[in-house]
Specification:
Layout (H helix, E strand, L loop, with lengths): L1 H19 L18 H11 L4 H56 L4 E6 L7 E4 L23 H17 L3 E6 L5 E9 L2 E8 L3 H28 L4 E4 L5 E4 L1 H6 L5 H7 L6 H14 L1 E10 L2 E12 L2 E8 L1 H23 L3 E5 L5 E4 L1 H7 L3 H5 L4 H10 L9 H8 L9 E6 L5 E8 L5 E7 L1 H22 L4 E5 L5 E4 L1 H7 L3 H5 L4 H8 L6 H12 L7 E6 L5 E8 L5 E7 L1 H50 L8 H31 L8 E4 H10 L2 H6 L3 E6 L5 E4 L1 H18 L5 E8 L3 E8 L31 H11 L3 E7 L3 E9 L2 H8 L1
Parallel strand pairs: 22-24
Antiparallel strand pairs: 1-2, 1-5, 3-4, 4-5, 6-7, 6-10, 8-9, 9-10, 11-12, 11-15, 13-14, 14-15, 16-17, 16-20, 18-19, 19-20, 21-23, 24-25, 25-27, 26-27
Helix pairs in contact: 1-3, 19-20, 20-24, 21-23, 23-24
Keywords: Kinase, Membrane, Phosphoprotein, Transferase, Transmembrane, Transmembrane helix
InterPro entries: HATPase_C_sf (IPR036890), HATPase_dom (IPR003594), His_kinase_dom (IPR005467), HisK_dim/P_dom (IPR003661), HisK_dim/P_sf (IPR036097), PAS (IPR000014), PAS-like_dom_sf (IPR035965), Sig_transdc_His_kin-like_C (IPR004358)
GO cellular component, one term: plasma membrane
């Protein structure tokens, strides 16, 4: 309480100083009692305060409020100090208890020899405690414990370093069993505890060491078992183990798949076996008799029968087995056997004689051609005779080349057994045959002989050489220049005509110059770079080899016809022929033909022009003739009417001729277009026949019309078809004698409508059949027919415009038949128009 009063006194003294400065005056000083004994002074001070005026009382009230706050703060401070004192007393008591507990744990921890090493978090300095004499001498520094290499062999020391680094960096715990350089067995345990890395090292002895060794052996055995189980599970071959009673105790997934079981337990419960009963019995017998079993057996897996190499051995009281898929090896073995047999059969089919002698020089194999070649007995050959015996028998039969020293010759032949390379020779036998002999040393020892009868080949070679000489002489006698260049571009062959034609040196050509060199020599006669590049590319090209024609006009005025022809051996042949005279004649003929064509075109143009010029006056004459024949113009005398009738007929004939010429000119110019539409065959024939009725009556000629019932109609230009039929009928009437018959018929085929016009006139001679359709070809042949010769030309032109054809069959003295085919296919009309 005295402390509170002292505090109050200090507060009031502060207030007194304020009052003395003009705020409270000297009365505030009386409020500061120093102790309970000074209560009387406090009463006196308060009585003085009563004498203050109201303004001073307000200041006094503020001071009293501050005084109350100070009192409360002082009381709270006193309580805090009292609580802190009590807490400090409790902590001291707890620390004492913890110290006792730590001492007790320390005594328990170091009751046995061990070392503790700790690294606080974020600190590389290690704190080491415990008995370091178990790894180092007693006078050693504790920090030397961290140098594991000083008391551990290199491999355990390296393992300890790695384990400690993993513990400090990642918090990975470890437990190691170590053997020191002095043979002591230690246990090192590392853990991360409370943010510290702690390593505990203690010695193992007695039962603990034995347990550790048993644990290590168990762990190694467990690791080995897991490894073997993992290998068995990953192996693609069925692996199994059986107990003493033959029951399945282990199976890998491949065994489960092979037996089509759901799991190992399913295979055990259902007693599924990989082998069938007979093979399983054989395996059990082998395991019982020899403790092992090996055999290649067929096994059905997944519905497929495959071959497996099955191996089983007794292990302990049971057995283990594995089945390795040998289907591929079995197939390869079978294929090898078949291949060997195929090779034997192939060698038997060879025309070459083959004999194989082994390292002991005995016959190991021969084919049938070898036996036939030497005419040897099969029994003798099957007895595997040696090489010398075979040669002696052949010599006795006079089937070997005659030799002055047979022994030396045979010894030289037998050098092939010690040689490393193939040797070739030719034997000329007494019977006139020639044999090619090839001796090939075998890698495994021995020699293979190959005999080929080359008698015919040598004869062919002699004939070939003779033929080459004949060809050379023939080539040299040719007037055509020939040169052959190889694929390397060099000249291989040439004839004298080539040298003369290009004015070259024969000696220089024999040196096989390159085509570029030859080109340089020939530039004086022909220097077109494009042609020479074409020749060079054709000679040196590998692909797109084909014949290339050439035509060269040289500087001397001569013209050569050439050809670049690739040969089968990769070479290229150049041929040149002087066609100067032929070219001159051809030019003359061409110029004459062009002149004739120009004259013919001029004739066509003239006819076309004249036809147009004639139509105008003809139209005028025809108009005035009709005007004069009209009664409204006045009467005519009989003679005038007769003359006017002659004028009308002549002008109509001339107008028809002019129209025909215009039609032909239009067709020839390609400007004629058909007005296509349905053409009624019956109506068309009727219209055409109306135009010749007067002539039929005048010449007493009967018209016979035959129309097939199914002819119907077709698509065409009706006007032009009527014109075709009219011209054919007019031509037939003109050539037919009086009191005869002219026929016209129509029928339909699969693709056309056929019109046929027949007459009984004098017929057409054979030399005239090809000309009857030409312009202005008109011959009376002794008949009444007169005309300009344009009717049949129009017939052919109009029929061909329709895509049809016209043909004439005629026999002199028996009449003429003209047949016109009009196609019914619209595509034919389009093609004809184009």
């Amino acid at each position: 309480m005295s402390g509170v009063i002292v505090s109050m006194r200090r507060t009031l003294l502060s207030c007194t100083s304020l009052a003395r400065n003009g705020l409270l005056g000297g009365a505030f000083a009386a409020l500061l009692p120093a102790a309970p004994a000074e209560a009387a002074d406090l009463v006196d001070t308060l009585s003085i305060l009563l004498d203050f005026n109201r303004q001073e009382l307000a200041v006094l009230a503020t001071a009293l409020a501050l005084l109350g706050f100070s009192v409360v703060a002082a009381i709270l401070l006193m309580r805090t100090r009292v609580g802190r004192a009590k807490t400090e007393a409790r902590l001291r008591a707890r620390i004492g208890e913890l110290q006792l507990q730590a001492d007790r744990f320390g005594a328990l921890l170091f009751a046995e020899p061990q070392i503790l090493i700790s690294w606080p978090a974020g600190d590389n300095r290690a704190q080491i405690s415990g008995d370091i004499s178990m790894v180092l001498p007693r006078d050693s520094s504790p920090q030397r414990v961290l140098a594991f290499g000083t008391w551990l062999p290199p491999e355990p020391a390296l393992k300890m370093d790695h384990a400690v680094d993993a513990l400090r960096n990642r918090g990975d715990g470890f437990q190691l069993t170590l053997t020191t350089a002095h043979g002591h067995t230690l246990e090192a345990i590392g853990r991360a505890i409370g943010g510290q890395a702690i390593v505990r090292i203690r010695e193992l002895s007695g039962l603990r060491r034995d347990l550790a060794e048993i644990h290590l052996r168990y762990k190694a055995l467990s690791d080995e078992t897991e490894m073997l189980r993992g290998f068995a599970a990953a192996a693609p071959w069925p692996i199994w183990a059986k107990g003493e009673n033959g029951a399945l105790t282990f199976a890998n997934p491949a065994y489960v798949r092979a037996t089509e079981a759901n799991s190992v337990t399913d295979a055990q419960d259902r007693k599924l076996e990989l082998l069938d009963s007979a093979d399983r019995t054989a395996m059990e017998r082998g395991l019982k008799d020899a403790a092992s079993f090996t055999s290649r057996l067929p096994i059905v897996t997944g519905g497929e029968r495959r071959m497996y190499d099955v191996r089983a051995v007794n292990v302990g009281s049971g057995s283990v087995g594995v089945a390795i898929d040998a289907s591929e090896a079995d197939a390869l073995s079978s294929a090898l056997v078949r291949m060997a047999e195929a090779h034997r059969r192939t060698l038997d089919q060879l025309s070459s004689g083959v004999a194989v002698f082994d390292g002991q020089r005995r016959l190991a194999f021969y084919n049938d051609s070898y036996r036939r070649l030497w005419d040897l007995d099969r029994t003798f050959l099957d007895a595997n005779p040696d090489d010398s015996s075979v040669l002696d028998q052949l010599r006795a039969a006079r089937k070997l080349p005659e030799q002055p020293d047979f022994r030396a010759w045979k010894a030289k032949l037998h050098e092939a057994y010690r040689a490393v390379e193939t040797a070739k020779d030719t034997w000329y036998l007494p019977d006139g045959r020639a044999l090619s002999v090839v001796t090939t040393p075998n890698p495994e020892g021995g020699v293979t002989y190959l005999f080929d009868d080359v008698t015919e080949s040598l004869e062919l070679a002699r004939r070939f050489d003779g033929m080459i000489r004949v060809q050379r002489e023939t080539l040299d006698s040719l007037a055509e220049g020939v040169a052959v260049f190889g694929s390397n571009g060099k000249a291989q062959l040439f004839n004298p005509a080539f040298v003369r034609m290009w004015k070259l040196s024969a000696d220089a050509m024999r040196d096989e110059p390159h085509i570029q060199t030859v080109e340089g020599w020939c530039h004086q006669l022909f220097d077109d770079p494009q042609v020479w590049r074409q020749i060079r590319e054709a000679i040196t090209s590998i692909e797109n080899r084909a014949d290339v024609p050439l035509k060269l006009e040289r500087k001397d005025g001569s013209v050569l016809d050439g050809m670049i022809r690739p040969l089968h051996d990769g070479a290229t042949m150049l041929t040149f022929q002087d066609i100067t005279d032929t070219e001159n004649v051809e030019r003359a003929l061409r110029e004459r033909n062009e002149a004739l064509e120009a004259a013919d075109q001029m004739k066509v143009d003239f006819v076309h022009h004249v036809s147009y010029e004639l139509r105008s006056p003809l139209t005028t004459i025809i108009g005035f003739a009709h005007f004069l024949s009209d009664p409204s113009t006045g009467p005519l005398t009989p003679k005038q009417a007769e003359y006017l009738d002659y004028v009308t007929k002549s002008t109509n004939a001339l107008l028809a001729l002019t129209n025909n010429i215009l039609d032909l000119a239009t067709i020839d110019a390609g400007a004629m277009k058909l007005e296509l539409g349905p053409v009624d065959v019956s109506k068309t024939i009727e219209l055409a026949a109306e135009g010749i009725q007067d002539r039929l009556a005048t010449d007493r000629i009967r018209l016979k019309v035959e129309i097939a019932p199914d002819v119907g109609s077709f698509v065409g230009d009706e006007k032009r078809v009527v014109q075709v039929l009219y011209n054919l009928l007019a031509n037939a009437v003109g050539f037919s004698p009086q009191d005869s018959t002219v026929g016209i018929s129509a029928r339909r085929t699969d693709r056309s409508v056929v019109f046929t016009v027949t007459d009984s006139g004098p017929g057409i001679p054979a030399d005239m059949k090809d000309k009857v359709f030409n312009w202005f070809e008109s011959r009376s042949q002794g008949s009444r027919h007169r005309g300009a010769g344009l009717g049949l030309s129009l017939v052919r032109s109009f029929v061909e415009l329709h895509g049809g054809k016209v043909r004439v069959d005629s026999i002199v003295g028996r009449g003429t038949v003209v047949i016109c085919d009009f196609p019914t296919d619209q595509a034919a009309h389009r093609d004809a128009a184009e």
